[in-house]
Amino acid sequence: MPHAGTLDINHLHKQYDVKGKPLPVLEDVSLSIAPGEFVSIVGASGCGKSTLLRLVVGLEDEYRGEIRLDGQRVVGTSLQRGIVFQEHRLFPWLTVSQNIALALLNSQLSEGDKFRTVQSHIELVGLQGFENAYPYQLSGGMSQRVAIARALVTRPEILLLDEPFGALDAITRAHLQQELQRIWQAEGITMILVTHDVEEAVFLGDRVVIMAPRPGRIRRIVPIDLPHPRDRTSPAFAHARDGVLREFAAWHAAPEAEPRPEPAPSH
After folding, report:
1. Is the pTM of this model over 0.85?
2. What's residue 260's pLDDT?
3. Domains of the chain
4. Which residues of the chain have pLDDT under 70?
5. pLDDT (tens digit, 9 = 90+) per residue, 55-81?
6. Directed axis angle between helix 140-152 and helix 111-124, to 10°?
7. Backbone angles phi, psi at 219, to 5 degrees
8. Is 203 exposed, middle or buried (0-12, 13-18, 19+ CB in 10 A)?
9. Is the CB of residue 28 less than 8 Å from the CB of residue 12?
10. How far apart, in whole angstroms, are the C-alpha atoms of residue 33 and residue 70?
11. How far apart are CA 72 and CA 59, in angstroms?
12. What are the strands of the beta sheet with 81-84, ordered from one edge?
């Protein structure tokens, strides 16, 4: 069982330079995530969700504030932090087993241990029998299972998921949400999911972080006090989902609440 990481984000600010002018992307984001917790982050396009994940995983390093994993400042990429993107990014010339094993290239494990670790993760994501298949022989959902296995095979402390099911059809997406929940419970590691799908966020998350855009900042954090596995058809689930949706509705309605000028009188 891998160690579950504690993530602390403190007063995080991020901006890009666009044509010589600063473009704020994240503003004063603070968030603490407990070991083994599943946190969903939702928000409209442009709220900095994916940028936040890239900073946590170490793909970007220019920011103000602090990002710490188990008390240690995040610097660069590390096997302690795995990530799964919306595109599976598998190498088409490698088999399922070879794509997963690629993450262990610099591992100190023996070849036998590498083989057993890859096999156990193929079983974890339910792809037994497809070890020697190539990506073109897999469905989109199966390819994402391979990507998840590749991210987990190094036994990270935290797994970051950036819209991992965004390109899939609704039925496959719902099935993989259930599978991800099963994998999270089996592995016991910390997971952070970025998604546009409120129902997905509520189905998976212990907490849902709602972000407002331009620049990205945390609007509210909603605890989801429902046991796993969750029933999408239950009144309690609908109540939790609708509560998050109301937050979005309130934010979008806010500009409309401002007084409008009276129309000019007609003559």
Report:
1. yes
2. 39
3. 7-80+156-255 (3.40.50.300)
4. 1-2, 251-267
5. 999 998 889 999 999 999 998 888 889
6. 130
7. -85, -45
8. buried
9. yes
10. 10
11. 17
12. 81-84, 158-162, 190-195, 38-43, 207-212, 217-223
